[in-house]
Amino acid sequence: MHTNTGFPADFLWGGAAAANQFEGAYNVDGKGLSVQDVTPKGGFGHITDGPTPDNLKLEGIDFYHRYKDDVKLFAEMGFKVFRTSIAWSRIFPNGDETEPNEAGLQFYDDLFDELLAHNIEPLITLSHYETPLHLSKTYDGWVNRKMIGFYENYVRTVFNRYKGKVKYWLTFNEINSILHAPFMSGGISTSPDKLSQKDLYQAVHHELVASALATKIGHEIMPEAQIGCMVLAMPTYPLTSHPDDIIAVMESERKNYFFSDVHVRGTYPGYMKRYFKENNIELDVTEEDLEILKNTVDFISFSYYMSTTETADESKREAGAGNILGGVQNPYLEASEWGWQIDPQGLRVVLNDFWDRYQTPLFIVENGLGAIDQLEQDENGNYTVNDDYRINYLSAHLSQVKEAIKDGVELMGYTSWGCIDLVSASTAEMKKRYGFIYVDRNNDGTGSLNRYKKKSFDWYKNVIATNGEDL
User: Fold this and answer.
1) What 8-state DSSP symbol labels residue 110?
2) Which of 60, 163, 225, 248 is 20 to 30 A away from residue 107, measured at CA?
3) Could you read off the pLDDT of 167-199 as tens digits, one per residue?
4) What's the rounded Cα separation, in Å, for the pair 398 and 389?
5) Is the pLDDT of residue 202 over 60?
6) What stretches of 300-387 show up as alpha helix (H) in DSSP?
7) Which residues of this protein are catalytic (predicted)?
8) Of residues 253, 310, 366, 379, which has the active-site annotation?
């Protein structure tokens, strides 16, 4: 009997980023504004009327003009795959046009060609927290059913344009995050305190239908392509063994499983139908919607940064500083500088839970440590960052990935988040760095934008070269 003892020979090693966090060039070559251009304090922060000088995302790390040099660095590390996103408003500046912006299309043609020239497969997210601002202001984002048609026009355009170049696609980034960040994730302009549960879950339904429709269209246009969903994974542990805490964990995890259940099984689970009924949420769901939802994904991709803990005892609800999506502090775990609790074993739990639930191939498309890095000179006068803390973090997580593969989990690949320093989505800071490559840019917007290899650069290069044998 064959047993898995390590990473598969065809394992897709690489890194990940998002257009809105590193491209910059927010108003170049016909690009329209996105929801990111009016959130200078991050995805949970204040929304402005327009772009402001303190929004670091407007310039990002200028990947738009420097991508060739950056791709060379990715190739030097040995990347097999690079995950990024298409900025919807580069292709359709307002989002509701009928004809696309050719300059935007050409940029991604050039980027994908550059990746392929270095034998790096593009893994492309269609919508990564960058809904065109016009769609948010005019239609209230995904609350409006018209968004399905706008998204369909967009995905048909890019699928036809990049077929043969892009084999791996993701429909929405961390689609379940709309429950926590409706503006950033769903382009919903109604403020959270006024947004009804009915409208929120109607937006969720529209996104799920649009995702399934994109999967259907993608399979028709590109039969050889693989199309996946992307969810934010966060395993939940009970604070105690009290049955009430176990039920609290079950209910918490179902809020996330709901999204992958629909993507993989093509239908609404019974527990959500109960939730809607008990909370008087009546959604507009057509028979055509239900048919479209049957177009299920080829694989499940997810982000993993932390686990969380739940309890039914309100007197014990002490939230962790970094538990941005709820839950309570786990007393057994350390935390990052931003309060995110560090739990390598949780990644093994996630992988096994998804695999046992679906028996569908998995792909880790975000995982990494946001930390304050110190650029310094080595003995040869070269600038670097001695980020042993990042190496230790990633090594510990990848060791648990290896354990999950031994458990029998079918895993396609791993793309470390923010493989080159970029602007944080949650806080819009530069000092919260994830990369193997240091970018000289500061929180006040100063800096040369020069790139420097961190100590973790060579470490990850060796991980890939040994196919994960040497962690």
Assistant:
1) H
2) 225
3) 999 999 999 999 999 999 999 999 999 999 999
4) 14
5) yes
6) 344-358
7) 366
8) 366
